[in-house]
């Protein structure tokens, strides 16, 4: 698990850097929409290079046809995050923005886990889990007071 924890921490750190990089793109390109589009274009190229490097087999047409339409919303949600962070980063600062995003993720994750939605194993909401979420919300409140 230590490797997975370190990887998750590194990805979290990268998201904070991404906010700043997207703000720079926005400043040069004039709008959050263009910054997000460039971000996703570069991301698409990077993912294509990764897929080729690891020799990931192409999915069959039948597999693609079986994907529920709503599963494609993940890409739209990613675009929403990138575009929103580009707009909100300068207003909130990266620390408060990140804390708010994590708090939103945590609250949604508690509900998703509790009901086992989206194919996740059920993990009921417990006092301990609620306390952890409350500490994250408390961190948001403290960061917002600066």
Cα-based radius of gyration, to the nearest Å: 18 Å
How many helices? The count is 6
Number of domains: 2
The biggest sheet, with number of strands, parallel, antiparallel or mixed sense and barrel status, is:
none
Termini separation (Å)? 35 Å
Q: What fraction, in percent, of the residue positions are helical? A: over 70%
Rough outline: globular
Summing up helix and strand content along with how strands pair, one would put the structural category as mainly alpha
How many beta strands in the DSSP annotation? Answer: 0
Determine the strand fraction and express it as a percent band.
under 5%
Q: In terms of per-residue confidence, which ranges show pLDDT below 50 for 5 or more consecutive residues?
A: none
- Rounded mean pLDDT is 94
Describe the structure.
With 146 residues, this protein is mostly helical. It folds into 2 domains: 1-91, no CATH class; 93-146, no CATH class. The protein is built from 6 helices and no strands. It has helices spanning 2-29, 32-53, 61-65, 73-92, 94-115, 127-144. The two termini are 35 Å apart. 12% of the residues are buried. The model has no long low-confidence stretch (mean pLDDT 94).
């Amino acid at each position: 698990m230590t490797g997975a924890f370190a990887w998750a921490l590194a990805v979290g750190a990268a998201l904070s850097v991404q906010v700043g990089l997207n703000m720079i793109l926005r400043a040069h390109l004039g709008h959050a929409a263009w910054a997000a589009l460039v971000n996703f274009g570069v991301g698409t190229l990077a993912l294509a290079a990764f897929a080729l490097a690891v020799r990931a087999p192409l999915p069959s047409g039948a597999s693609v046809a079986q994907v529920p339409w709503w599963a494609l919303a993940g890409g739209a949600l990613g675009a929403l995050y990138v575009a929103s962070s580009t707009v909100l980063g300068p207003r909130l600062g990266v620390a408060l923005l990140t804390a708010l995003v994590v708090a939103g993720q945590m609250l949604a994750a508690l509900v998703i886990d509790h009901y086992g939605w989206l194919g996740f194993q059920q993990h009921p909401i417990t006092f301990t889990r609620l306390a952890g979420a409350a500490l994250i919300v408390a961190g948001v409140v403290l960061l917002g007071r600066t």
